[in-house]
Amino acid sequence: LKNYDERPIPSHVAIIMDGNGRWAKKRHLPRLMGHKAGVNAVENIVRAAKETKIPFLSLYAFSSENWNRPKEEVSGLISLFRLYFRNKARELKENDVRIRFAGRRDLFPQDLVDIMKDAEESTGDCRTMQLILCLNYGGRQEIVDAIKGITRESLSGKDLEINENTVRQFLYLPDVPDPDLIIRTSGELRLSNFWLWQASYSEFYFTDVLWPDFTGEEFQKAIQSYTKRDRRYGSVKT
Ligand code: IPE
Ligand code: IPE
Ligand code: MG
Hints:
By secondary structure, this protein is of the alpha/beta class. It is built from seven helices and six strands.
């Protein structure tokens, strides 16, 4: 009878959505078809997370290193982001899901930046779940940007004591709790520059399932696995 000491569901689930390219390759399709199929998986998982009453879901959709991919793939991904946020913001709002973004926006085309801003603003009052899209996100960049912010404030005369809390205040989304659970699909066992600062005590769940095949059921398996973990934070069990 272990039920009573199982962990509660995680507050923040973060997902490295990997394997779209291999999913397409297996079907002799262009990589972009894999990314399209990945968008359907996003819709399923957003629904599953909301049903599971997860308050924060973050999705790694484009890393600061993904600019190194072929030009057509990058522009195809940008078109998919455009389509998704333009078409889905209203539905997310109806479901009381707030959309937020983490990452540097300056390299994206202005029309996408505008669409992202609209999506954030139109869902700004939604409270049931926060959906965080990591777009042109890099964990090292985020830390560099935090250092820049701290330096700027200090030079402008503000007397800042530098501690962990100060650093956190200068991250992209300081109010979002650290991910309790980080899921990575497609069998790769690495962080690839995701949530570097925030991941220090995250639990990890890896699965060989490719992102377009990742279903609500697979998501529940990850949550189940999490509920059985023993998080010690460097301490000992009393
Ligand atoms: C993840 O799938 C999506 C993005 C990084 C945008 P990949 O495109 O990395 O798929 P694989 O790893 O090549 O299979
Ligand atoms: C990580 O996947 C980034 C996203 C899922 C957006 P990659 O496929 O880019 O990572 P690596 O290159 O295999 O580490
Ligand atoms: Mg990959």
